[in-house]
């Protein structure tokens, strides 16, 4: 399995959790919305952590690129985390309009972000990190369990 395949599937998994939370919030089912939102944020933090702590540093070391794509992705991760906090506030206060407004902004950001990663960055990573294929396969298994 390649980085692009694993991480794109992880995007899809996070997107499913996002949709469950959004649907529950729109229906006023705050128990489900709260649980789904918590699951979504946990999955996203796991995903962002894999990128920030494992993939980005390995890519930067292998490619010599420390500015550019990974820097932009980290900046977008920070923007997402701000939106997570705003959504948390809306869940805690059971305010559907606030939640749905912020979730719409997050959805657009995530779609654009994921497209850049899946179409450009992950392919670059697959090229630069292909020598570590066996090690990556083990990491994929470990991350899948996490």
Draw up the topology in text.
Layout: H1 3-26, H2 30-63, H3 69-92, H4 96-128, H5 133-145
Helix pairs in contact: 1-2, 1-4, 2-3, 3-4
Structure, explained:
The protein is an all-alpha fold. It has five helices and no strands. The chain has helices at 3-26, 30-63, 69-92, 96-128, 133-145. α1 runs antiparallel to α2 (30-63). The two termini are 18 Å apart. The mean pLDDT is 92.
Task: Write out key terms for the chains shown.
5 helices, 146 residues, mainly alpha
Task: List low-pLDDT spans.
Answer: none
Estimate the helix proportion, in percent.
over 70%
Form type: elongated
Output the number of helix runs: 5
Termini separation (Å)? 18 Å
- Structural class given helices, strands, pairing? mainly alpha
| Order of secondary-structure elements | HHHHH
DSSP, total strands = 0
CA-atom Rg in angstroms: 16 Å
- Strand residue percentage: under 5%
What is the arithmetic mean of pLDDT? 92
Task: Name the quaternary structure.
Answer: single chain
Q: Quick one: biggest sheet?
A: none
